[in-house]
Write a structure and sequence with these properties.
The chain is an alpha/beta fold and about 140 residues long. The protein contains five helices and five strands; from the N terminus they run E-H-H-E-H-E-H-E-E-H. The chain has a single domain, classed as Rossmann fold (3-Layer(aba) Sandwich). The longest helix is centred in the middle third of the chain and has 14 residues. Bound molecules: ligand CA2.
Length: about 140
C-alpha cells in the first residue's frame, strides 16, 4: 500500500481551539479523518504537525523513501522557508500545497509562497476540504 504524507506547519496544532472565525472549529484529528476517507483503500495517510522548520525538512527527507506524494500546509513557513522549498525540490513525487484560509484575501505578506515554486497544485480557501482535495489529487496521480 502507498503512503501519502500530510504535513502541517507551525501553530496548526491549535486548529479548532483558537481563531475559529478564520480556521473553523475542526481539529487536526478531523483533518486526519477527512484525509483517510479521501485516500480510499489503496493509500494510507501519515499526518504530522510540527512547530519546527527543521522537523518538517526531516519529514520531507523521510518522504523520499516512504511516500508516493505529499500534501503540505506549511502555515507561516509558506511565506519564509527556502529550506522547505529546497527539501521539496529533492522529493520526486507530487506535492500539493494547501491553505485553509483564502490567503489572497488576507495580508499582502501571505500572498507570496516559496512552496508554490515546487507545488504541482495549490489549494486555498476551501477550509479543511482542501486537504481532502489534495489527497484525492495525489491518489489519482499515483494509482497504478
Ligand atoms: O490558511 C492557512 O492554512 C495558513 O497556512 C495558516 C497559517 C498562516 O500563517 C498562513 O498564512 C495561511 C497559520 C496557521 C495557524 O493556525 C492556527 C489555527 C488555529 C488557531 C491559531 C492558529
Amino acid at each position: 500500500m502507498k503512503t501519502i504524507f500530510v504535513l502541517n506547519g507551525p501553530n496548526l496544532n491549535l486548529l479548532g481551539k483558537r481563531q475559529p472565525e478564520i480556521y473553523g472549529h475542526e481539529t487536526l484529528d478531523d483533518v486526519a479523518l477527512l484525509c483517510r476517507d479521501a485516500a480510499g483503500d489503496g493509500h494510507r495517510i501519515r499526518l504530522l504537525q510540527s512547530n519546527w522548520e527543521g522537523q518538517i525538512v526531516d519529514w520531507i527527507h523521510e518522504a523520499r523513501d516512504e511516500a508516493c506524494g505529499i500534501v503540505i500546509n506549511p502555515a507561516a513557513l509558506t511565506h519564509s522557508s527556502i529550506a522547505i522549498l529546497d527539501a521539496l525540490n529533492a522529493f520526486d513525487g507530487p506535492v500539493i500545497e494547501v491553505h485553509i484560509s483564502q490567503v489572497h484575501r488576507r495580508e499582502a505578506f501571505r500572498h507570496h509562497s516559496y512552496v508554490s515554486l515546487r507545488a504541482d497544485g495549490v489549494i486555498a480557501g476551501l477550509g479543511l476540504e482542501g486537504y481532502a482535495a489534495g489527497v484525492r489529487r495525489i491518489v489519482s496521480l499515483t494509482r497504478d
